[in-house]
Design a protein that fits this description.
A: 77 residues, alpha+beta, Ubiquitin-like (UB roll), 5-stranded mixed β-sheet, B: alpha+beta
């Protein structure tokens, strides 16, 4: 099962894609997911992350089949 | 009673509130206090004239996060009911963006819960504003204004 990676708002425009599928049979760290999906080595401090639509921190592990999202600080309301 | 509505179409908050209260809270005799916040799009930001805005969100996670915030606030302040309505898509100045309403037995809980819901929404619900200025510039809003 691939990991589905989503990018939103200004981050999507910077990376140049809204979605990416990562083929993997083993869990990946968020750092590895970021590097393989964005092509950037360093995960910026102000990027927010969710796994299966719940906020997580950068140390979380991602399982095959999970949905991961990276996005900038939120500005609703 | 809790309700979250993320919608693309404009809405009239006072009508929405009246309709929801009439349909969902026919006998809310417990609630001595109702606190309401309406956020409306203004035509300026950071010193520039703003003519329009596009509000992007994360379908699925947005509704889920708002429901979590409402459930947490309802428990913390023993709310009788809570309602959050939020626009997405193209928005014009003077159009309502967000409606937060809470019902509780006493005013302190209602005021505090309404403000808490609004602030946590602004900092954790996955919405992003992209505004268009009067000179045609399009830019992402990268931070919230102070309360």
């Amino acid at each position: 099962m691939p990991i589905k990676v989503l990018f939103f708002a200004s981050l999507r425009e910077r990376i140049g894609q809204s979605q990416r599928l990562l083929e993997t049979d083993t869990p990946l760290t968020l750092q590895e997911v970021w590097q393989r999906s964005s092509g950037e080595t360093h995960l910026p401090d102000n990027v927010l992350m969710s796994v299966n639509q719940t906020y997580v921190d950068a140390n979380s592990l991602v399982q095959p089949g999970d949905e991961v999202a990276f996005f900038p600080p939120v500005t609703g309301g | 009673m809790q309700h979250v509505d993320v919608r693309e179409m404009p809405f009239e908050p006072w009508q929405y509130l009246a309709d929801w209260q009439a349909q969902q809270l026919p006998e809310n005799a417990r609630s001595g206090a109702t606190a309401v916040f309406v956020g409306t799009m203004r035509d300026f930001n950071e010193g520039d004239d703003v003519t329009g805005m596009y509000l992007e969100h994360y379908p699925g996670m947005t509704e889920r996060q708002l429901a979590t915030l409402v459930a947490e606030a309802s428990q913390r302040w023993s709310l009788d009911a809570a309602l959050v309505v939020h626009r997405v898509g193209e928005i014009l100045p003077t159009q309502p963006i967000v409606l937060v309403a809470v019902w509780s037995a006493h005013r302190a809980a209602a005021f505090e819960a309404c403000r808490h819901l609004m602030e946590t929404l602004k900092h954790t619900a996955p919405f992003w504003k992209r505004e268009t200025l009067s000179n045609g510039t399009v830019r992402w809003v990268d931070r919230n204004t102070l309360g």
